Amino acid sequence: MPDMSIAIAIMLGSFIILLMLRMPISFTLGISSALTALYLNIPLATVFQRMVSGVQSFSLLAIPFFILAGEIMGQGGISRRLIALANACVGWMRGGLAQVNILASMFFGGISGSAVADTSSIGSILIPMMTDSGYDKDFSVAVTVTSSCQGVMIPPSHNMILFAMAAGGGVSIGQLFMGGLIPGIILGIALMIMTAIIARKRNYPKGRVLSVKEIWKVTKDALLGLMTCIIIVGGVIFGWFTATESAAVVYAFIITFFVYREIPLRQFGNILRKSLRTIAMVMALIATASMFGWLLAYLKIPAMVTTALLGISTNKIVILLLINVMCLILGCIMDMGPLILILTPILLPVATQLGMEPVQFGAMLILNLAIGLCTPPVGAALFAGCSIGRIK
What we know:
Elements: H1 4-20, H2 25-39, H3 44-55, H4 62-75, H5 78-90, H6 96-112, H7 115-132, H8 137-151, H9 158-166, H10 173-202, H11 212-237, H12 249-260, H13 268-298, H14 301-312, H15 316-333, H16 336-353, H17 358-372, H18 380-389
Helix pairs in contact: 1-2, 2-13, 3-13, 4-12, 4-13, 5-6, 5-11, 6-7, 6-8, 6-10, 7-8, 7-18, 8-10, 8-18, 9-16, 10-17, 13-16, 14-16, 15-16, 15-17, 16-17
């Protein structure tokens, strides 16, 4: 009879070792799961069945659609138009380009749902503009990275769909979208206030005040791109269609290639290839995380964590603070996607036992993990920003 404590040690030990060796997270999850299954005498066929069932979900179809729609609009001129719209709104302020950066990230985050895509797209345009205008290079990169990470809270975010799937399908994606909207906007406003204070202290330049005619032209030009976000979020929230049906690839395709027409139709093949690479990584991650999560449940690790946390204190605030700290630390060393898939089945029972709504917990979890995207040693958005800004 296999010893469960040894199985847990094999699973978590191999996972940590492979993670420290910088092995890709999909392989880390898969290998540690396979080693644990072999020790527990679980047929590997059963383990791989769990992998397949993990990606056999209708709601997961929204993720490749979101990725493709974001890629189409990212390459089709939407970034430049959103930056122009943000400039019309806040570019006239002291430190206007930094404010434009934050507002554009709020717009673009709602379309791409990816902090790294946001940093790469917005940053490649605005970081050079900011440094040429007299902004410090480290400040320009920091504003881009932090505003991109805040943008993942604003719907439609595929991270919300991952959470809904990991929560067992009992959480409404529409409610999760609404749960992230207000915190995401408040975070953006807080960043803008902090940026205004720093800009005034460092005497960063002001932008030009646009005329009413210029503002109307910019707004009209950007409105079609922004409609992608409105279609997805509005349709899901009001129940007109599901997140999968609303991924708006057809709309993004028509606007990019037949309205904006900044790239030729033959470029669509390259967009598909780039999207396919991203989708393949995401789906491999979901499959292996599903297998890993099934073994966690088999070994009763979520129940153990719940008992341990509730045994530390009877104070709900203390336990929730511990969960926040745990998520912040883990977000520093692992990517956001796998952590959502691993932590949700472990921590959601604790949160619900404390009386927290699943939607509130989802927003809290994603916010904590989003901070990890701009925090070393992993910090995917941080690395992307430093690469674009050419700083260490």
